[in-house]
């Protein structure tokens, strides 16, 4: 019986030893990916901000709050179409950034289509890759860092300027009890396209620059607190400034008219929700990448030790007395 039990334990030990590396180096790279049907909404606020009063004389004024709603929706059908040509798992995110003034009315809204590799988060260039309807070719990451983010600089795409520049790793931080990596990016003053939807009655924003010579300029200092396991930001803050220059701003000091200036941060309830969501996904990724393979390896060693112990006991048979002639 002992020998049979030791053989069963040995079989289970071999099974666990074989399954551990298979789970880590075969299953994990294939299963760890962004779902194509993901949906998420985040509300950000800029309190005590400066906002251009488009309906009250085109002058900047202080407001108690500007609200920014960002929605992200996975486009499953578009993902399948692109995957057929790309030959790999692809995610298509249709996003919308909706900016509302203190009265709740729209200030601007900018749609995006972001196409990327579901496993690595590298951009995938395909028809439909746009920002506010304009075709773009992203380089680097946007919205999300890769799984198991490294403590180094990355190339990050800024949707306003339609350009990519380094986002710098500053160091480790603790955010609401989570160990995270902290990144910063500063985009210098850059001329950017006018949003295609703005609260200007009877005027197409796309023609403002052509008819009046007015240009829109933008600068930002962006900060991200990123969970290094999932690569998902648990918090994001931005110091944004936008100016109109020349044209309708010619009479303003130095020919510059502030369109927006403020510190943008997640609303408290969404900040806590995002932190909890990332923490839950972090546990799932670690279970597949680390906990399960390590547990199986330890279980295999324990089963092997038990099998050897039973085998050794089975071999120590009691002495048999020998009778004389």
Would you kindly provide a written description of the structure presented here, covering whatever features stand out?
This protein is an alpha+beta fold. The protein is 30% helix and 39% strand. It has four helices and twelve strands, in the order αββαβββββββαβββα. The protein has helices at residues 2-31, 76-86, 205-212, 268-315, and strands spanning 39-53, 59-74, 90-100, 106-117, 130-131, 134-135, 154-158, 163-175, 178-192, 215-226, 233-245, 256-266. The protein has a twelve-stranded antiparallel sheet. A hairpin with a 4-residue loop joins β7 and β8 (163-175). α1 runs antiparallel to α4. The longest helix has 48 residues, at 268-315. The chain is elongated, with a radius of gyration of 29 Å. The mean pLDDT is 90.
Main attributes of the structure:
325 residues, alpha+beta, twelve-stranded antiparallel sheet, elongated
